[in-house]
Design brief:
- Residues 89-169 form the Cytochrome c domain.
- InterPro entries: Cyt_c-like_dom, Cyt_c-like_dom_sf, Cyt_CIE.
- The chain has helices at 3-38, 41-55, 64-81, 94-106, 118-128, 130-139, 155-169.
- It has 170 residues and is mostly helical.
- The chain is elongated, with a radius of gyration of 36 Å.
- Bound molecules: heme C.
- Heme C binds next to helix 4, helix 5, helix 6 and helix 7.
Length: 170
């Protein structure tokens, strides 16, 4: 190998080394900047709290008098949150319930749902009477799902919507 060749190699090699060193320095500076921005005091406190919350045990161990009280409170809270929800907060506003639940089918006549016209719903009430229509609306009939598919509607709420429907065809 010639001396000329060696010199050229050393030059190229130094250039590559210098480039790598510069790259390392840039990476270190970037890391410092990111670290400063992401982990300053206040934010890391919030982070810490979030981590602690995620680390909470799923179940609790209760012992003694205070433990019994805590267990009871936890059981009551669980029972309260699993209480059945009544649709529309128990409202018996037939027009509102019709609009939110029944109109989907009864406005368009989807699947053969009687529309609020004399020839359809009007004919049914003349034929069967209000009581039968209410009980069929509650229990379902053919393609008509029980309670219009909203099992959280009470009997009174379904009856109120039927009354609203019948008012429209009088
Ligand atoms: C998924 C569509 C759909 C929804 C939602 C729906 N209905 Fe119906 N409804 C029908 C169909 C279809 C019929 C016709 C059933 C039959 O007689 O074959 C029907 C029939 C009825 C009848 C007549 C029953 C009879 O004995 O002739 C009443 C009353 C009624 N629906 C009330 C309601 C009320 C009140 C609601 C809302 C709480 C409601 N429907 C929501 C599809 C629906």
């Amino acid at each position: 190998m010639s001396e000329q060749h060696d010199r050229q190699f050393i030059q190229t090699f130094s250039a590559v080394l210098a480039g790598l060193v510069a790259f390392t320095v840039v990476i270190i500076i970037l890391a410092l900047i990111i670290h400063d921005r992401e982990f300053d005091g206040e934010q890391s406190a919030a982070r810490q709290a979030a981590v602690e919350e995620r680390l909470q045990p799923v179940g609790g161990v209760y012992a003694g008098e205070t433990g019994r009280a805590a267990a009871q409170a936890a059981a009551e809270a669980a029972a309260a949150s699993s209480e059945p929800q009544v649709a529309f907060e128990g409202s018996t506003d037939g027009e509102m319930i019709y609009g939110r639940v029944c109109a989907a089918c009864h406005d368009s006549g989807a699947a053969g749902a009687p529309r609020l016209v004399a020839g359809e719903m009007g004919a049914r009430v003349a034929d069967k009477g209000r009581e039968t229509l209410v009980s069929n609306a509650i229990n379902g009939i053919n393609a008509m799902p029980a309670r219009g598919g909203r099992s959280d509607l009470s009997d009174e709420q379904v009856a109120a919507s039927v009354d609203y429907m019948l008012d429209q065809v009088e």
